[in-house]
Amino acid sequence: MGIWHKPTGCPAAADGEIPRRTHAAAAPSAGTVACGNCQNQVRAGAKFCDSCGTPMARHCTNCNADLTASAKFCAECGTPASPPAG
Ligand SMILES: [Zn+2]
Ligand SMILES: [Zn+2]
Question: Phi-psi bin for 53: left (phi > 0), alpha (psi -120 to 50), beta?
């Protein structure tokens, strides 16, 4: 029987891998819309302002098309959008 050569150390040492920390920083104005009530920057597509609770998404009373918070008229049929309550 020969000499059993036992490997020493760990040859496959994982190095050079820097863990990336994804920091949930507040995104700049990209993808946000201003709340019509408090001007808070709300995520685009949000149903309500996360600051004051004002509904962000409205619908045309005539054709039920989606209206933006700042829309004064329906983009589909031209019906005047009902102003937000208050
Ligand atoms: Zn608001
Ligand atoms: Zn409409």
Answer: left
> DSSP letters of the chain?
--------S-SS---S-PPPP---PPP-STTEEE-TTT--EEETT-SB-TTT--B--EE-TTT--EE-TT-SB-TTT-PBPPPPP-
CB 76 within 8 A of CB 63: yes
Distance 62 CA to ligand 1 centre (A): 26
Give the distance (Å) from ligand 2 centre to CA of residue 71: 11
Mind listing the pLDDT tens digit for each residue in 12-60?
555 666 667 765 554 445 688 888 889 999 988 788 899 999 887 778 8
The pTM of this model reads 0.39
**pLDDT value at residue 59:** 83
Q: Which ligand is nearest to the CA of 63?
A: 2
